[in-house]
Records
---
Amino acid sequence: MDFTFVSGNLGLDLAGTVGRRRGERISLLASPEDLARWTVAAGLLDTPPAVSDDDYAEAVALREAIYRLASAARTGASFEAADRERLNAAAAPAPATALLGEHGLERGGDLRAALSSTARAATELLGGPQAGLIRECEADPCTRLYVDASHRRTRRWCDMRRCGNRAKAAAFRARRR
């Protein structure tokens, strides 16, 4: 499966690697290799990093903590201390590097650096004014969280090409019946 980056925040995009959270969950990060591919697809690193089973478990735990924190921000609930601690611990190491090389942009670092960059993006979102703009996709069964940066703050779907198009097509079919 291909990864999508439509949430408006890298941390939410990591959380979005699980679909259909209220039903039969679909995980796009089913293995350490998938996580390595995600770091490249996310534009964090140029080459897939080495990912051990422990690294993978830590990344999945970070993903779930980000989801719970963003859900809490969306509903106005308090952040769980353990989730905050996990996010802060992941954000603490040096982030991935972006350097201007001889042939253009060169992104580097290891998995820890890539996860640090991701955790820092989530931290900036959750601790800043955009935390109040976190929404959940209205398309059933999608549960992706995203930042509603639309002009009127009325965005309903995580991605117009997928969820929005499906919802509009279903509404059209219902009207035609």
---
Amino acid sequence: MGTVVMYSSVSVDGFIADDEDRPGPLFDWLSNGDVALDDGGALTVSQASYDHTRPYWDQIGVTVVGRHVFDLTDGWDGTPPAGVDHVVVVTHRPPPEGWDAAAPFHFVDGVEAAVATAQRLAGDRVVEVAAGDVGGQVLAAGLVDEVRMDVVPVVFGSGKRYFGSVDAPHLLADPDAVIPGNRVLHLRYRVRR
């Protein structure tokens, strides 16, 4: 099975959005360079960010998100983001009325079932878990293998926490990647078991 990775851009003080779910400048690093990160060239980053991010993105088979993120993005109009094959949505509610049942989205109740579904769909590819409440629940359940953060030089002061409502310590190994880019610091940690 593929690696389960918790991932997001994050403020220096640990937030993935402000109190009103706005990411503010957290994604500015995706337009702060001269190397195209995506096929269309809408995202341009430094060479260091490209060398770190593109290989990771190419490994992602499935993304796990909460229903809140799904609703905020309007389900990406039924097309998984950034070339991901499937999206698993952790929710206690059914898909939205009129949702295309053929879209590669899977609505699952509970994080353990969501990760199991994602791993089955991903095979040996990476299962990416969005940071925040769902990511924190997956970490607390002992199902995260790796934590990746794109740390952006901004302080929010309050907002949506990277690790959600995790209320117990979890040890991470020393960082095995510390990559400075334009307006971002890429970090990668293995989760200690």
---
Amino acid sequence: MSNKTDSNIYTILFAIGMVVVVGALLAFTAASLKPNITENKRIEKQQNILYAMGVNENDETSAVFISATEAPEAFQSFIKKQLVIIDGVAKEDDQAYLIDIKKEKSAAKDPDYSRKLPLFVGEREGKTYYVAPIYGKGLWDAIWGYVALDENMVVQGAYFDHKGETPGLGANIKQRFFMDDFYGEHLLTENGAFKGITVAKGNADPKNLDKTDNEVDAIAGATITGDGVTAMIKSDLKLYKPYFDSLKTQKTN
């Protein structure tokens, strides 16, 4: 007489039972961890924004955020206004840092959709910083960043990151030697037209002394990632030019 546990039906039912149990456990774990994951993402965004405006723990060579425990208080201290710009109109919104840039960029492919543009106005040592998030694509996956500007759209700091670029090559966009090159670079031409910044292979200014050439030196062996940085700067930061034009208009009135 055969054992019931040897039957195909028992095996199938056992497998289904295990899938249900394991699935339930995974769902419960995911639900339990979701608040922590959301909070960690919130703090990471705050660290990124603060880093771009110079609130960090950098040493001579390394890029170092302020700690996760310090970030919320520092964010409240240094960020004076959070704005959301829609169709050229800026409104204050203290939840602007929660806007998903990737989703907004995707939704904007619909010509009838009005993209939400977050902008963070910070003050440090008597200076005003305007920090804008940007998002794009590198060689393998997503790249993103936060760029701090002054009222003339001159870069005052930048932080870049990636999801899956090649270590030692494209992944170096988050290294100090690359990010620091953007400091002082102009996004506008002498005539005030938006030009952006090109990550240029064979740049004639490898020491980055000319801050009005709209170029920084590329990372060797990371051409496509560099092109992705160029593209996201030009496509995303251009959208903020009407806001900065309005700042100049307000000054003259």
---
Amino acid sequence: MASVNLSPDLICEILRRSSVNDLLRFRCVSKAWRSLIDDSGFIKLHLSHSLETSTNLSLLLSLCGKGNIYSVNFASLKTAQRLKFPGDEGRDFAVLGSCNGLLALLELKDVPLALFKRWLFKRKEEFYLWNPSTRKSQMLPVNEIGFTPGVFSVPHVFYGFGYDPTSDDYKLVRIVQCFCRTVDVFESEVMVYSSNTNHWRRKEDFPFYVKYTRLYAVLVNNALHWEVSTTPEFDSENFDADFDLIAAFDLGTEEYRVIELPDCLGERLTTNINAMGGCLCLIATYEEVCVVDIWIMKEYGVKESWTKFVSVKTECFEARSDVLPLVYSKNGDKVLLHVDGKFGGMLFFYDLRSKKADKVEIEDAPDVFKVEMMVESLVPLNGNGAMLNKNQHGGKTKRKNTARDGILSKRIHQV
């Protein structure tokens, strides 16, 4: 075949529309293509295109059990494939958050219940960042919890993971809260890990009581969100609070703020929050009337922009269930819902016009799971560097390649 000469701009346009698996194979085409695909500017360009066009999306299914993370291609929704963390045999991981193709993981240990509290505050938590698409992982520095709880107090830990575009920094947040009913003592600790510095920092205490409904925060508008209250409630089994507010931790300023709720929620309801289409969602479940109202904050931070998106009758599903909206269909006429019912996890496409729900059957999916959306990406784990793996090439080779392909890299940034 006769060779075809394509301009660097056209090559970049073609490659940014490719899947991550294809791009990893295309790195072997030539040194110029490898340099282009590894360039930090191209990595961000490819990620931006995937997010804007909703391509390269997957469902991330996870549960606390051996071999506990699965991926389902959103375009097909046919088969769940287990994601194998490097050296994961016999290891159990909790997914703390997903952002731009990176997962924050916590390795879990089998600990007797009687020793849980002692273990929680004496253990060395093992956190990892992992890009399943590139199969690269990184263990984070060890950080122990900085205080010892009282004898009659019960500790709970909450996490959040996200990206700060102003500093080009991925951050993991850990909130520890410990409330003792007998002596009216409340202790807390907030730590923030920065991928730029590879270091943990102590932040001012979280000024709210986090509702104990989910392990990880909801990421919207470069901020982490939890359901919170200004007053705690405590019993022997649960640390919970009446849901008053949504509290946010801004990943850029590292300051807290409050998101107010809609005024007309009513009474006798349970709530949850999630993200969909880049917006914050509030899910209000009225079990007595078997109705779930899904609210969307169309303008972030503006209370008046809360809009009731849809009311779903839970009789559409196989049982009374907790419902979370995940993502719009390609045409925007349906919404994919995760339904956590009595018989395990289920997925439904809910038609916004006909008000009907069609169950999505996924082969090899676990019976019980939590789910969130994940975009496949080339985002590296070593800060702002272009290389996917620091040990893959020596420093001299990298400098030569960068100098040789400097013109090509400049073109990438200009696209």
